[in-house]
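Our preliminary data section would be incomplete without showing what the modeling component actually yields. Below, a chain of 92 amino acids is followed by its predicted structure, encoded as tokens that our downstream tools consume directly.
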Amino acid sequence: MRKEDDFVVCRCENVYYSDLLEIMEDGANNSRELKLKSRAGMGFCNSRTCGPLLEAMTGDNSNELPHYVHLKSQPPIRTISLLDLARGNNDD
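Predicted structure:
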């Protein structure tokens, strides 16, 4: 049961703030671990929306040591329509 003040951090993967706090309490101490254990940042936007909050929650956005692998955002290589995918069309 969600609390009234809980909110969705990652809309793509439907990850709530309370979920992230629980994962951090279980030992995740950097944004990469938080991402891997919660799936926050693994959706369509590739952490462009939730990534800064994940890094802020874990302190990975500071320049202090140790440095962790920060979250990376990248667009898809190219888009393909579902119709082309179903037909097996590819121009490569």
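The first strand starts at residue 8 and ends at 10. The two ends are 49 Å apart (CA to CA). Preliminary results of this kind motivate Aim 1 of the renewal.
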